[in-house]
Amino acid sequence: MTGPNSAQTLTVNGTGFAAGVTLVIGTTRIASTLTPSITSLTPSTITHSNASQTITINGTGFYAGLKVLLTSTGAQQQTATIVSSTATQIQATVSAATARVWSVQVVNAALRPAAPRLP
């Protein structure tokens, strides 16, 4: 290491990382190899409204700093507002001002996205 701003490489070798690998330096999570996975979305249909509505996303591999993205053909991507999250569940509010079918995707801070999930 040559200084505080120089690039450094850390290689972790091993096997048996069934839950993924997370690199933490001090109290900062630097990266994770665990890709989030969505197993269910509740409710699967929400009513068209100008008011925000809460959805629950269940799955695995959710980390602090995650984002919930909503995409639909011909529409601008939206980011849901996170109300609460754990490693296996996210509560988020979404706007349903436009009637469409949206794909929901969870992206961890390390930018490892879950596969999109349609309701």
Which helices and strands occur, and which strands form pairs?
Layout: E1 22-25, E2 28-32, E3 37-42, E4 49-60, E5 67-71, E6 78-79, E7 81-85, E8 89-96, E9 103-107
Antiparallel strand pairs: 1-2, 3-4, 4-8, 5-6, 5-9, 7-8
Query: How helix-rich are the residues, as a percent range?
Result: under 10%
- C-alpha Rg, in Å? 17 Å
Count, helices: 0
Mean pLDDT: 74
CATH class division of the domain at 36-107: Mainly Beta
Low-pLDDT segments, ≥5 res? none
Give the CATH architecture of the domain at 36-107.
Sandwich
Main β-sheet: number of strands, strand sense, barrel status?
A: 4 strands, antiparallel
Can you give a write-up of this model?
- The chain has 119 residues and is mainly β.
- The protein has a domain at 36-107: Immunoglobulin-like (Sandwich).
- It contains no helices and nine strands.
- A four-stranded antiparallel β-sheet has the order 3-4-8-7, with no helix packed on it. A three-stranded antiparallel β-sheet has the order 6-5-9, with no helix packed on it. A two-stranded antiparallel sheet has the order 1-2.
- A hairpin with a 6-residue loop joins strand 3 (37-42) and strand 4 (49-60).
- The radius of gyration is 17 Å and the shape is elongated.
Concise summary:
With 119 residues, the protein is an all-beta fold. The chain has no helices and nine strands.
Essential attributes:
single chain, 119 residues, mainly beta, Immunoglobulin-like, four-stranded antiparallel beta sheet, three-stranded antiparallel beta sheet, 44% strand, elongated
